[in-house]
Amino acid sequence: MTLVLTDVVLTYPDGDHTLTALDHVSLAVAAGEFAAVVGPSGSGKSSLLAVAATLITPDAGTVVITGQDVSRAGRTARTNVRRDHIGIVFQQANLLPSLTTLDQLLVMAHLAGQSPRTASVRARELLLAVDLGGKEHKRPHQLSGGERQRVNIARALMNGPEVLLVDEPTSALDHHRGEQIISLLAELTRNNGLATVMVTHDLATLAMVDTVLTMSDGSLTEGAATQVV
Ligand SMILES: Nc1ncnc2c1ncn2[C@@H]1O[C@H](COP(=O)(O)OP(=O)(O)OP(=O)(O)O)[C@@H](O)[C@H]1O
């Protein structure tokens, strides 16, 4: 298994009390598996992604990424694991306004210390894979919302991650463009052997994933609940 969370507990301070955002959550996602997490607002979905992304250290439990236990790792070790093994796609593309499509990807490679030549070849391959061939020199304002989200996805894959974490990738898109993005994520997951976890409110897209998990009051269960939004 590429991504394994075991018995994870995460609490936030809440006045005199604590709020349990993740209540003994376990999750295992294999290479090439596309898992979706659904559940009501406030149920803990973003907290789950943040723990899997090593952005938040849980109070208890373990997070193992490509065999490496990062649950108690220090800040630098977590940053390195995130840079080398995890791709993150947020709701909004968060592209740098002044950079071209190609440069958005090359910045990531530069931060990871890749040689410019290798990076350029990989960036062009990825842009073709997300169907953005010919748009290498466009800036974000010259792209559609769907195209921006595809740049975002290509950028997340630039450093060859094994784990892809995706937070509501279709929320800024119409239904058709949203379906195209999910279908692209499914294809990239299979072709690159990624362990992908996607938080979504879009139930229509669940037919395209391998596993559906439901978060409810901090607990994660397999399968889709009837009431998820
Ligand atoms: N930084 C924080 N400090 C305190 N409480 C927080 C913090 N972040 C989230 N929470 C609380 O933890 C619970 C889980 O929040 P989380 O954002 O993980 O839910 P979610 O399922 O992603 O919600 P949504 O679908 O609305 O994005 C909620 O009760 C929320 O209010």
Automatic annotation (TrEMBL):
Q: Where is the ABC transporter domain?
A: 3-228
Pfam family, any one:
ABC_tran
| One term of GO molecular function | ATP hydrolysis activity
Keyword terms of this UniProt record:
ATP-binding, Nucleotide-binding, Transport
Q: Name one GO cellular component term.
A: plasma membrane
The record's listing under CDD domains reads: ABC_MJ0796_LolCDE_FtsE
Listed PANTHER family: ABC TRANSPORTER RELATED, IMPORT ATP-BINDING PROTEIN
Q: What is this protein identified as?
A: Putative ABC transport system ATP-binding protein
Q: State the species of origin.
A: Sphaerisporangium siamense
